[in-house]
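Data availability (excerpt). The following record was deposited with the supplementary files.
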Amino acid sequence: MAAAAVMPLLAYGAVSMYSLRTGAQETVVQGNLNVARQVSEQIDLYISGSVKILKAVAADLQQTGLEPWQQDRILKNYVLEFPEFRELTLIDESGKSTISSRIGKPTVTVPGSETTKIDGVLMSRFSVDKDLLPSAVLAVPVTDNQRQGWLVGQVNLEELWRMVDRIRVGSQGFALVVTGEGQLIAHGDPDEKSSVARGDSMLSHPLFTALKQSKEDRTASAEYEGTRGPVLGVAATLPVLGWTVIVEQPQSEAFAIPIRLQNQLGIAIALALMAMLTVGYFWGRSFINPILALTRGTRALASGRLDERVVVASTDELGQLGDAFNNMADRLVELQEDVRKKERQATFGRVAVGLVHDISHPIQNIGNSCKLMVKMFDDLEYRESFKRTVEREFDQVKRVLEDLRNLARPKPIEKFPLDLNKALHGVAESMLPSAETSGISFETELVFGPLYIEGDLYALNRVHRNLIINAFQATPPRGRVIIRSMRKDDEAIVEISDTGTGIPPERLGTIFDDFVTTKKQGLGLGLALSKKMVEQLGGTIAVVSQVGVGTTFTMRFPITKARPAQLAAS
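Predicted structure:
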């Protein structure tokens, strides 16, 4: 919900800030371009005026039949009237100066190469004279009395410099003028005047590249790195001369207003966003807190903490849901207590039935023997038989009671290096008479050589004997029970397989649980104790069974490099 509310506002703010910045920057660029256009028009008028003045002088001189002194007076009058001309000189067709406004020797000649033609007038490249002022030479053809010559004038561009120096864009923006050949002839920045004196080429300037791509209005703008940092530059081309006027302004000043507006808009959006998030947080918490409480309560119930309750103060649907949750939790407590009571009763019943089954038979045998003992007390042979019977049956009773005690408090097992093959062989020998009595084929397939593990011989024998007895009880006469030992990597593997009735699949997952048995009678402690002992020895036990085919119990123990003390001593 918060994302759905915030994202449109953020998108609108981003678009607004971008549009504001872009529009303001475009306005600044257009404003600077207008300045560049106005400057170019003024310079165009300034140079075009000089060209027109020179052509007017040429018109006064040619085909008039004036005397040389009259021509001299005309040239001097024009120089006095128009201070932008330093010198006006007539040069004949042989290149010799005939009349000049200069008192001394004329200094101008007809421009040769690297000239520009403006309205029929030749203009040389601009240069810096001995007074460190920019100047250029203009030449226009003159015909007088069938003689061809030239009227040559030296134009002083000092006024052009002053015009460019007066141009300011903001407080740090300057203008500069570049010829069509890329020659810098004026710069408004006092620190860059030396570049004009050197005649630096501006052909590599970024705006010249941009102007080449502009084919219509002959204007361009760009942002680039200048001598004083990032600058905004605009350029406009003079329509007649082909010169270029460039206006440069630091971006920090040019875009100061857009940046300030963008910051103000960003602050406004941030404040609005914070206000909305604050209001949404408190409103959302009042809506989400009941849901979070219900979630925590559900997780608590799932983890077994049935005393967990939720507090929902509202009276709406969430409040009703909270009340229903608390009622459900109360009902679960009642059901759990009822289930526990029934489980205790069922467990006690099973224990009682198992105890009756496992203990009643030995006690009955002892009782019957006692009755016979009263009658046959004088029979020495019977007394020995009575003694063996009582000891055997009491051992059976003690075994049942010891299983119960070990289930509640498992006896700690001390582990020593022992040969698993030797232990299996001894158990097999002791169980062989029981197999013959039951009519079962009892076989051993032991891996060659000793198989040492860390274990307790009594605990291992008890596990093996328990599994073998179960196999005997599940296998009908003429069946087979096989004990195998194997070595695989760093593990010793023991398998006890039978061809008995098998275990149903639905009961395989619980046969190692306490008080669970597949037999009709008994406590169901044998496999549970066997699993605990195997795990205490650091091993694992698993079972695979198929009804009507047989069952295989597989135990895995880590092989040890240690050896029994007697073997190590020898």
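Summary of structural features: The chain is about 50% helix and 20% strand.
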